[in-house]
Amino acid sequence: MPLKIIGGFLLAAAGLGFGCTRARRLAQRREFLGRVLTFISCLSTELRYRNDDIFSLVNSCGELFQVSQSGSSPFYSSWRACIGKLRRRWSLTPRDMDLLDELGSRLGTTDSEGQLSHLAHYRALFERQLAEARRDEEQKTKMYKTLGLFAGVSAAIMLL
Length: 160
Hints:
The chain has one domain. The chain has six helices and no strands. α1 runs antiparallel to α6 and α3 runs antiparallel to α5.
C-alpha cells in the first residue's frame, strides 16, 4: 500500500511537471520574440551609422543570430542555417519561423533605406507576434499546470 501512495504522488508530480514544462515553453517563445525586437532595433541603428557588410552588422547585434560567412555563400543561406537551429530551443511557431525567414530574405540586398523600411515593417509584425505570445502565456500557463496536475492525480487515483 505505501508503494501505491508513493507511486500516486509521483504520478501527480509528473503531471504537474509536464504542465510546468508546457508553460515554460510559452515563456520561452515570449522571451525570444522580445529579443528579436531588440535585435531589429539594434540592426536598424547599426545600418544607419555603420557602413559595413550585413554579416558584421547582424553579428554585432548580439548573440541571438550569429551568421557565419563561409566562402562566397550569400547572406540568406547563412541566415537560414542560423534560424533553423532556433525553433526547438525557443518553442517557436511555424508563423514565427516564416517571419524570421522573410526577415532575412531581403537583408543585404537593397540600399540602406530599403533595409530600414524592411526592418520597420518586420518590427511591426514581430510586435504583433509578441502580443500574441503574451496573451497565450497569460491564458494558457495556469491551464497547462492545472491540467497536468489533474491528469497526474487522475492517474494516481486509478492506481489506488
